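The freezer alarm interrupted the setup, so I double-checked each line after restarting. Inputs confirmed:
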Amino acid sequence: MVKLEKNNVKVEFRGVNFCYNEEQILFNVDFKVPSNRITALIGPSGCGKSTLIRCINRMNEVIPMSRMDGQVLYNKENIYDKHVDVVELRRRIGMVFQKPNPFPMSIFDNVAYGLRLQNVKDKSMIRETVKESLVKADLWVEVKDRLDLSAFRLSGGQQQRLCIARALAVNPDVILLDEPCSALDPIATARIESLLKKLKKEETIVIVTHNMHQARRISDYTCYLFGGKIIEYSETEEIFNNPQNKLTKDYISGEFG
Amino acid sequence: MVNDHLKQEIYFMSFRLATFLSVAILLLILVYVFKEGVGVIDMKFLTSMWSHRDITSGGIFPAIMGTVFLALGVSIISIPTGICTAIYLNEYAKDTLLTRIIKLAVRNLAGVPSVVYGLFGLSLFVVFLKLGTSLFAASLTLGCMTLPWIITTSEEALKAVPVSFREGSYALGATKWQTIKAVVLPHSLGGILTGSILGISRAMGETAPIIMVGATFFMGYLPNSPFDKFMALPYHLFILATQHSSPHAREYALGTALVLITLVFILNSGVFAIRYTLRRKKEW
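Predicted 3D structure, all chains:
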């Protein structure tokens, strides 16, 4: 298991159980996410990776018929406490989804969306932040002359980088990515991977992927989930070169999954 | 193999036949009404007051205006209420037994015969609330009739907004209302407006309920206030076709029908134009 200095822990799960429709998805999960690192969650379909990552920004609450217990700490504060404002929380913890989901509006408006939600009215500041976020997301050069174009006109890879820019615009502390490359071709995937490596200087990144090679290429820590339980969690090099658990070994050597 | 191809041919053939039949029936009605009714249509017919004794010396202006006023009244009453109800039911209300019962009831209300709404309007609005037989009472009655239809179609339009849009918005720290306003409504507006206006055009053609709550066959003037009675195209058409003794009644009835169809057609083209512009803006 990963040993982390106390002040390097950005997010911590303490005994988290999650049920959906009477079916238990997560079993007593304890899990620590280090600051300014990329942590990858791997495991076969249906193992609970997405559910786990969605606990971090309370996205599971959107789903009816779900129940959770245990604690998730963000900067040492339980985000499931009654007084925590979920809207505020999600402004600190951004998310990028499996399928690129730009809003049906222009490229500019997509990136400005989060700022406008926070009632930012200063137009030059919005313009500045939009540009900055698109630069960070490695998309600026491609779209700078056509910011008024509908976001749907972009290719899948560009749309996904737009979604990353959209998340960056509100200056989050943590970015969650739920299989962000599964709908993209290898070249688009490579661009996003190099982008994430750059971003970890400023952000804490958690990425769900069922592509083991991707986890190996970009992450500092890797967590293997199976059947809603954490089977093994350690430094990426360690888990791929020297897996301790037989289940982990079978999975990463391609015996199943 | 051969058998499968033959089967496919037979099925396609029957679908084609069904399509052909429905289009043919529609065309037949349109051609008939147009051919028989277009003769009486001129400026006088469209813009003069109704003359009861000699119908050829007057026009159906008050009936046209009555139907237009009625459509406006129904729109004002049922479109905002219907859309707000749909938003509440689809976006805010928790999925409880009560919500489900309400949704089921709304769907069933959409199937209640219009004459029953007429009776309801007569006893509630006309008699109990003392609104009298009036444009106002008729607007309320037809508004009630249109409401379930608007709620149902708006709900469907809201449901069609992909979950991924909502999630994307929530993940950026949007509240539910911000998400509805900025993402859900713009995306579903086309469907909501289409449903609403189809509901209104259905109300424009209703005859049975308005007879009970305020339509009259003969009025020498336009309604002065919402509490006046009014003339309306469908009722006018009904009287001309069944009760009137003038030898010209038949062609005048068909002329009235043509005007009514045209009004509905104009309204529906409006919807088409709105949808077209919205879709262009979206650039799917």
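Quick read of the result. The longest strand of chain A covers residues 9-20.
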